[in-house]
Amino acid sequence: MTPPLSPPTAPLAVPPPPPARPHPDRFIKHANLMSALTLVSRFGGLVRDKVCSYYIGVDTSWAAFWMGFQFPNLFRRVFGEGALTAVFVPVYTEVLEKEGPEKAGRLANATLTLLTLVLAAITLLGEALLIPLAMSPAVLPPNRLAAAMIAIMLPYCMMVCAVAVMGAIATVHERFTAQSLSPIILNFFMAGAAAGSALIMVHSTPRDRIFWVAAAVLVAGLFQVALMLPTLWASGLRVSPVFSFASAGLGAILRPMLPIAIGYCAVQINTFMDTQIAWWFSPDGHGNLDHFTLFGHLFHTAMLPGAGAKLSVAQRIYLLPVGIFGVSMATAIFPLMARAAAREETPELKRLLVGGLRKTLFLSIPASFGMILIALPLITLVYLGGKVTPDDVSRAYHAAIFFCLGIWAFEAQMVITRVYFVLKDTKTPTQVALAMILLNFCLNLLLIWPLQEAGIALSTTIAAIAQSVILLAILRRRLGPLGLRSLGGNVLRGLAATAIMVAAGLAITAIPMPWDHPGVNPLTAKWLTSLVKLPLLVAVCGMIYLGLTRLMQMPEVGDVPFVGRYLRARKA
Questions:
Q1: Alpha carbon distance, N-terminus to C-terminus of the chain
Q2: Which ranges of the chain have pLDDT less than 50?
Q3: Eight-state DSSP code of residue 80
Q4: Which of 227, 351, 450, 491 holds its CA 20 to 30 A away from the CA of 243?
């Protein structure tokens, strides 16, 4: 008799293998890739600035444009690559690791959908307020121009924020190229609009050309969004609207969003506030008058015309190394910090923090002093000529000096704040940031009178240094010893190498040039001197610093883009 067949047993459920852990120092490779691409972008930005300043200048018209451009920049920092991505990346990473790509993709699409809807509503409301101001004859012409610039570029907020969130998604999947190329597109369109308007409209004024540049920003935004889509497809994400926000898990992102917006964006809020102060405490905001009335009292303006434009030039100078090294390092290390926090691996999180600070300070300390050395020839080479005068260059240079003193703090802060975000602590960075914003505002009002634009720069730098130190001290108290003592030796050796580098740089700046005599046009002489000394300063100072740190056996030398590859090739 044949025994009855037993019911088939269900196969044992085999748990999926855990996601592969990235190499612990892979962030260095990714940071180097982003640094190289950002370097190309920043040089493209300098070319853009050269073209725009030559045809438009750095006076009231450019200050009005810069005020308009600050709005999408601020939104990008708050809703894009700032607060939203600071909350989004840890949550998206956790969902991806624990619930799989389908659930993570739904969360990503819901985030993009809600972001677009919110920014569209803000844009429509803004346009309803700005367009009447831009067309009202009762408003002073410079303020009408500023309102028009804001109105034209406000829709760019939606595009640039979407690109930033798409870029954050791509970084979790270790894809960094497309978002690093996005600024290159913007530079190309802005420079093309400035030059094209001057060539096509030969008799146009800088005020006319600035409208072309503002419109080019919108066109660039469309191309930036289109560039990101293939990267998301390659990451396994198909972009489509998702309106069921609650079921997509969006609550975990929205709840801490506002406090993190303040905590993460303190520097950006300070920069935005700096621009407003430069506009309203100069004749630009008062119909070119050197006085204004406030609460029935007459005040003289603290700054000269075009203060905001000079400040924008100084900001471009100090942001050059911050964008190349600071943003790249913080962006590359953020997903690894998020993974360590999701797995509750506190020692690994502290290791990443100290490692990120070590790599950042290795380059940001010499950059802080090196940028002061090259700021004058760089500003002269990029901006002098056309509509830009030597006085414009001098004012921008003095502001740049005080910004550059804080480069190391601006970059270190980016790494430190990300630890709070992956730990989902929104209260601490918010409280510290609010205090620093208040400090910056008070210092601005005190220092603009004796230092003008340089006072604004010094205020921002002091606030950034204070914020970095306070956040690091609180973090040490919360997590215990962070291993920061290991940074001490590196910092001291870096400072010693930097001091020798600065001495060599000062010697180069003192070298007389053969055209330094009354028979040569002063503008030509200044430009030729900058053309010779800028590359000489960069090459000599860079080789001295890297050579000395190599002799001091600092391993961070091997992580510098191109240098590490050269050293490994020599060793092989």
A1: 76
A2: 1-24
A3: I
A4: 227
CA-to-CA separations, 11 to 8, 99, 562, in angstroms, rounded: 9, 22, 53
Q: Annotate 262-275 with three-state secondary structure.
A: HHHCHHHHHHHHHH
Closest CA to 56 of 220, 215, 205, 217: 205
Smallest Cα–Cα separation from 266: which of 454, 462, 424? 462
Tokens at 257, concatenated: 């969003």
Residue 299, beta-bridge partner list: 292
- 106 is written with which tokens? 């739904």
Query: Tokens in use for 129?
Result: 């307020």
56-80 as b/e: b if 16+ CB within 10 A: bbbbbbbbbbbbbbbbbbbbbbbbb
In sign, the C-alpha dihedral spanning 548, 551, 555, 559 is: positive
3-class DSSP state of 293:
strand
Cα–Cα distance for residue pair 101/340, rounded to 1 Å: 19
pLDDT of residue 254: 73
Using a CB cutoff of 8 Å and minimum separation of 24, what contacts does 563-572 make? Answer: 564/32
CA 394 to the chain's CA centroid: 24
Helix (H, G, I), strand (E, B) or coil at 289: coil
Quote helix, strand, coil % in the chain, to nearest 5: 80, 0, 20
Among candidate residues 508, 496, 498, 567, the one with its CA nearest the CA of residue 535: 508
Nearest-10 crossing angle of helices 60-75, 141-153? 30
- Give the pLDDT confidence score for residue 506 in this predicted structure: 96
296: left (phi over 0), alpha (psi -120 to 50) or beta: left
Report the SS3 class of residue 292.
Answer: strand
Structure tokens at 356: 């990120």
**DSSP annotation of 219:** H
CB 105 within 8 A of CB 238: yes
- Picking from 258, 231, 241, 237, the residue whose alpha carbon sits closest to that of residue 82 is 258
**AA letter at 443:** L
Query: How many Cα atoms within 13 Å fall on the side-chain side of residue 380?
Result: 21
Q: Between the CA of residue 22 and those of 26, 334, 335, 485, what are the distances in Å? A: 7, 13, 10, 27
Structural element, H or E, at residue 408: helix 407-422
Q: Residue 124 and residue 457: Cα distance in Å, rounded?
A: 33
What pLDDT does residue 24 have?
46
What pLDDT sits at residue 6?
43
| Contacts for 447 with CB less than 8 Å, ≥ 6 apart | 454, 455, 456, 458, 459
In the chain, the amino acid numbered 271 is T
Question: From residue 429, how far is each of 98, 160, 200, 221, 455 by CA, in Å?
Answer: 28, 25, 50, 31, 25
DSSP structural state of residue 294: E
